Every structure is written in C-alpha cells, then in structure tokens.
Amino acid sequence: MLLNRELSDRPLRHVLCSAATAVAFLGLVAGGAMAQQSDQPAGAPAAGAEEAKGTAWIKLCTTDEETKKEQCLVTQELRDGNSGELLASGSVRIAADQKTLLIFAVPIGVLLPPGVRIQIDNDKPTVAPYTICFPQACVVRMEVDDAFVANMKRGSQMTVSVLNAERKALGFPLTLVGFTKAYDGPPLDPELYKQAQQKLTEEIKRRAEEARQKQEQQQGQQPQ
C-alpha cells in the first residue's frame, strides 16, 4: 500500500500533488524550488488541512505491513500562495517502540554546514545537521523527547532557518497553532485528504494555464 511505504524510513520519490504528497514529502523526500527571506512567510499551508481540521497541521496514520504497528505523521506543508508549489515541510513522526522524530524538508542549494537552526518562539535555537539530500530537497531528521514536543504544544511558531549558497538566511516559519489538536487528536480520513489534494492539483493546473495565457498575450502585444 502506498501510504504504508510513505510512512516508513525508506527514501521515496516525490510526486507533486498526488493523494499522499505530504506524507512522501515529510516522510523522507520532498519537492520544492523556492524560499523566502527569513523575515518573510515561506508560503501557505497545504490545501485540505485547514478545511478538514481547522489547522495547518494534519495527522496521517497507517499500520506498517511488516511490524503491524501504527505509525503517524503530524505534518504541515508550506506552499506558494499563488502557484500552490510545495516550498518546505515539517513533521513529527510517532511510532510505537521508536523514538519520536522531528523531520524537515527544505529546498536544495543550501549550505550543508552548519545545518539548520530550529527555534520555537524566542527560545534558544537548536542546531541540527542534514540527514540526507535528494535531487528535490535536503532532509533533517532529529530525535526529540517529550519535553520538546511539549514545548511545541505551548508555542506559537517554529522557524526553520537555513543558509543558501550565498550564505543568506532563509526562514521557513511553521505555525504551532493547532499542533496540539492534531497531535493528540484522531488522524485525518485518508479519503478526505485525497480529495483535498485532488482539488489542489486542479487549482495549480488552472493557475498555470492562466499564467501561460497571460504570458502569450504580453508577447503578442510587444512591438516586432
């Protein structure tokens, strides 16, 4: 089953806007091509999450085919507000008899040292190294304890900062509003999430077509 594979630790290919895009992106692969400056929002929460849960965070669970134990991802995507393009993502992976993992996926082209800086509100930042880079993104996987998760529940924003090739800071702010509700609550119905992702795919295609037509009109109006 696709969802089971995407919740595992194995590297997975990213298929933008498929029914389980967020799971694949957050589970150890990612897509994305842009980032904003650290003092600017990096994008809009994924479509479907807010519609279904009233929060930017969603919880997706499945049962591992080998261990028969449940695994869950509490995830948030950052998307471009105009194109719907996936920019970055963050998640907390919960699995029975395993350490809780904090997972981030950021665009490629970042400086690997010094890794990423993770900060909740005005707390002291935590620095974590990159775990692996794929053609689409670089991924950070860090073990966290109950105290860190509790801090996320109390917080209002978690910012992931990276350095690009020009050594400029890029920030990806993840709202923590609604994190507790998603973390402690029941998982989202996979079918509901699938429908939301299908709507997102259609919206991205529509906007891309509008942009193409606009560009053709502008080219046609230019003097020869």
Short description:
By secondary structure, the protein is α+β, with helices and mostly antiparallel strands. It has helices at 2-6, 21-27, 49-53, 146-154, 179-184, 190-221; strands spanning 44-45, 58-63, 70-79, 86-95, 100-107, 116-120, 126-128, 132-133, 137-144, 157-163, 169-175. The chain has six helices and eleven strands.
Explain this structure to me?
- It is a single chain.
- Strands 1, 2, 3, 4, 5, 8 and 9 form a 7-stranded antiparallel beta sheet that branches. Strands 7-6-10-11 form a 4-stranded antiparallel beta sheet, with no helix packed on it.
- The chain has helices at 2-6, 21-27, 49-53, 146-154, 179-184, 190-221; strands spanning 44-45, 58-63, 70-79, 86-95, 100-107, 116-120, 126-128, 132-133, 137-144, 157-163, 169-175.
- The N and C termini lie far apart (56 Å).
- The protein is built from 6 helices and 11 strands.
- It is globular and about 65 Å long.
CATH homologous superfamily assignment: Invasion associated locus B (IalB) protein
Tell me the fraction of residues in β-strands, as a range. Answer: 25-35%
* Topology-level CATH name: Immunoglobulin-like
* Most strands sheet: 7 strands, antiparallel
The domain tally reads: 1
Structural class: alpha+beta
Mind telling me the C-alpha Rg?
Answer: 18 Å
How far from one another are the termini? 56 Å
Helix segment count? 6
Quote the average pLDDT. 76
Note the run of SSEs as H and E.
HHEHEEEEEEEEHEEHH
- Tell me the name of the CATH class: Mainly Beta
